[in-house]
Write a structure and sequence with these properties.
This protein is an alpha/beta fold. The protein has helices at 8-23, 29-37, 69-79, 96-103, 115-122, 164-168, and strands at residues 58-61, 64-66, 86-90, 107-112, 133-137, 150-155, 170-180, 186-193, 199-207. 26% of the residues lie in helices and 26% in strands. The strands form two sheets. Strands 5-4-3-6-7-8-9 form a seven-stranded mixed beta sheet. A two-stranded antiparallel ribbon has the order 1-2. Helix 2 crosses helix 4 (96-103). It starts with 7 loop residues before the first helix and ends in a 10-residue tail after the last strand. The chain binds S-adenosyl-L-homocysteine. Residues 64-67, 90-91, 93-94, 96-97, 111-114, 117, 139-141, 156-157, 210, 212-214 line the site of S-adenosyl-L-homocysteine (SAH).
Length: 217
């Protein structure tokens, strides 16, 4: 069962969480406000109620996790989201990251390869609050050619390479943020699509994500 009540205690814990993220160096108040507004405990089983506002990843079933809030804030910061931008997210998971993007005013398209997680989100009433998120069941390596091009693309699973079809679905000047690597630890990268097929690659800190897997399940 998932909790549906957002108490003063939860709100207080949320402020402490955002203070912690700010102290770790992410000072963009728009992102911190978004995290303060989203009841993260709604995205977890009530067994996690006591710990939902610790800055940690937690299991959400099917061997997957809800990302650590610091990681969500970090990837969101690198994406430089502006209101009304079209953003493609690969790896919906709990849909928490999608909600952060939606709170920033983005038009979010998010893909999940696991049917069970996709179905869980369909039944998750809190998400009705966000008409600016569209949910898709599919393989993120394919992207969403029908809805392309996108201003920004965010991959929330460890990618062994920059998926070429996703690069094609990025607007000129658009950016993709992804944890790149095959091992336990990946490097956060930001790839900007420049003119005439050129790309700019920037490298940031190391993180540890679950792998991006090909095909649907
Ligand atoms: N953004 C999520 C993090 C989820 S963990 C959140 O905020 O909770 C990564 C997710 O990526 C998992 O749910 C996993 O099933 C999904 N995933 C892995 N490979 C994928 C692929 N090729 N296409 C779509 N989703 C994928």
């Amino acid at each position: 069962m998932r909790p549906t009540e957002d108490t003063y205690r939860h709100k207080g814990l949320r402020r402490k969480l955002t203070d912690g993220i700010r102290n770790k160096g992410i000072t963009d108040e728009r992102i911190l406000d978004a995290i303060t507004r989203i009841p993260r405990h709604f995205f977890l089983d009530s067994a996690f109620d006591e710990v939902a506002y610790e800055d940690r990843a937690f299991p959400i079933g099917e061997g997957q996790t809800i990302s650590q809030p610091y990681t969500v804030a970090y990837q969101t910061l690198l994406l430089q989201i502006r209101p009304f931008e079209k953003v493609l997210e690969i790896g919906t998971g709990s849909a928490y990251q999608a909600c952060v993007l939606a709170e920033l005013g983005a038009q979010v398209y998010t893909i999940e390869r696991q049917k069970k997680l996709f179905e869980l989100n369909k039944a998750f009433t809190h998400l009705k609050k966000y008409p600016n998120i569209k949910f898709f069941y599919g393989d993120g390596y394919e992207g969403l050619p029908t809805y392309a091009p996108f201003d920004k693309i965010l991959i929330t699973a460890a990618a062994p390479e920059i998926p070429p079809k996703l690069m094609d679905q990025l607007k000129p000047g658009g950016m993709m943020v992804l944890p790149l690597g095959v091992g336990e630890v990946q490097q956060m990268k930001r790839v900007t699509k420049l003119d005439r097929g050129k790309i700019k690659e920037e490298v940031f800190d190391n993180f540890s994500f679950v792998p991006m897997v090909e095909g649907k399940k």
